[in-house]
């Protein structure tokens, strides 16, 4: 039999989905499962989004569309990013894709030749690692432990960029940690970025509307507008508008890069379908009450999760200020046994398995994000499930011996 390409061997199925699948299976077997595992927003977009999709369906031309995205969609996105102070971009600076993941994949192909280096922080969003592996890039990880609030320091970034990577990939607010860089922190990192003109910077900021505590969202381009010719901003409808399955992602950056992404599109997806485009425009330009309400709900849920974790001796958890994740260091449990079930906890994967088996609570092991001392709690579950899920989590830790 002929062999598959080597890059397939480098691509791994998402570790996040493995836990979610196991939780689903247990649920189908009749177990009472509360899932804190998957990073979906768990709300639906407003009615105006569905109305726009229905109207577009009635008028659908059934034809191919623009590789870059329709002009109306590009304009809606331009207006959207102007609201967060990313002004002065034009259509030529924008490209779309089938979700932010696809845009990042396109960028990896457009910016990285085999053997080029990409650097990013640990903990990282799982797909960064896998996409870099698929395009056969060298990966330089910057460890950002809880003792530095899971954030990279300017000195760390300076040391990494001094090695002249082709791409620096940054994520703010972060999945999996929920941490958000302050205005001053962004300014300090932007000063470092400015010293290294040969490195492209991708800022995957798809949670930019989900920032709590009045901290605000900040980008390197706000701090240093001259970086605009190297910084590529990534956004998505998935989390902000409760539209992960609609698959719409964007980039705003230098014209040459947007053109390269559109060229990639022309060779695989061709275009985002008309009906999806209409829904996306409605989400971006319509009433913003759903995202605003959800933001308030998520920050309250974040507080509930943190309050529970604070009651467990040994758990260390920097306070997240965005997205909908909490990422506690749970290594205090390693080497212990869960009394009632006798399940032994050697590492994060054992811990997540035992928690699921014993209490029906699904979390994602931190090793999926390059940080095996932690686990990720995604707190977007229906509100009535949150308190019982947290109580079970706490009880599990109380029962460790
Ligand atoms: C940090 C980050 N970037 C990108 C994505 C992908 O988003 P999309 O659904 O637009 O592909 C996710 C999804 O979980 C994410 O957490």
Automatic annotation (TrEMBL):
InterPro entries: Aminotransferase_I/II_large (IPR004839), AspAT/PAT-like (IPR050596), NHTrfase_class1_PyrdxlP-BS (IPR004838), PyrdxlP-dep_Trfase (IPR015424), PyrdxlP-dep_Trfase_major (IPR015421), PyrdxlP-dep_Trfase_small (IPR015422). One of its GO terms (molecular function) is transaminase activity. Belongs to the class-I pyridoxal-phosphate-dependent aminotransferase family. It comes from Lysobacter dokdonensis DS-58. Keywords: Aminotransferase, Pyridoxal phosphate, Transferase. Gene3D superfamilies: Aspartate Aminotransferase, domain 1, Type I PLP-dependent aspartate aminotransferase-like (Major domain). This is Aminotransferase. One of its GO terms (biological process) is amino acid metabolic process. It comes from the Bacteria. Its cofactor is pyridoxal 5'-phosphate. Residues 32-388 form the Aminotransferase class I/classII large domain. It is an enzyme of class 2 (transferase). Its EC number is 2.6.1.-.
């Amino acid at each position: 039999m002929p062999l598959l390409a080597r890059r397939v061997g480098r691509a791994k199925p998402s570790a996040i989905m493995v836990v979610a699948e196991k939780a689903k299976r247990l649920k189908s077997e009749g177990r009472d499962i509360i899932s804190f595992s998957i990073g979906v927003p768990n709300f639906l977009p407003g009615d105006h989004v569905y109305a726009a999709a229905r109207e577009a369906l009635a008028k659908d031309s059934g034809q191919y569309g623009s590789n870059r995205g329709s002009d109306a969609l590009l304009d809606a996105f331009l207006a959207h990013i102007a609201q967060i102070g990313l002004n002065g971009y034009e259509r030529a600076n924008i490209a779309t894709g089938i979700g932010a993941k696809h845009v990042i994949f396109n960028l990896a192909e457009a910016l990285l030749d085999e053997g080029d280096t990409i650097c990013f922080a640990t903990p990282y969003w799982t797909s960064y690692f896998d996409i870099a592996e698929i395009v056969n890039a060298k990966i330089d990880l910057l460890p950002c432990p809880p003792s530095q609030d899971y954030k990279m320091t300017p000195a760390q970034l300076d040391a990494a960029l001094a090695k002249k990577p082709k791409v620096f990939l940054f994520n703010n607010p972060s999945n999996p940690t929920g941490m958000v860089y302050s205005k001053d922190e962004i300014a300090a990192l932007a000063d470092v970025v400015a010293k290294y003109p040969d490195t492209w910077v991708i800022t995957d900021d798809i949670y930019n509307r989900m920032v709590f505590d009045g901290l605000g969202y900040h980008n390197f381009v706000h701090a240093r507008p001259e970086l605009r010719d190297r910084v590529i901003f990534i956004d998505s409808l998935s989390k902000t508008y409760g539209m992960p399955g609609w698959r719409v992602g964007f980039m705003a950056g230098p014209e040459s890069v947007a053109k390269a992404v559109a060229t990639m599109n022309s060779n695989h997806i061709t275009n985002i379908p008309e009906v999806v485009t209409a829904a996306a425009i409605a989400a971006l330009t319509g009433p913003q009450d759903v995202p605003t309400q959800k933001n308030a709900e998520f920050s309250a849920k974040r507080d509930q999760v943190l309050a529970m974790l604070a009651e467990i001796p040994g758990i260390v958890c920097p306070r997240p200020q965005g997205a909908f994740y909490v990422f506690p260091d749970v290594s205090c449990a390693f080497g212990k046994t869960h009394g009632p079930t006798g399940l032994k906890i050697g590492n994060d994967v054992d811990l997540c398995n035992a928690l699921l088996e014993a209490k029906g609570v699904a979390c994602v092991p931190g090793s999926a994000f390059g940080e095996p001392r932690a686990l990720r709690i995604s707190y977007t579950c229906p509100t009535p499930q949150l308190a019982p899920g947290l109580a079970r989590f706490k009880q599990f830790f109380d029962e460790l011996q």
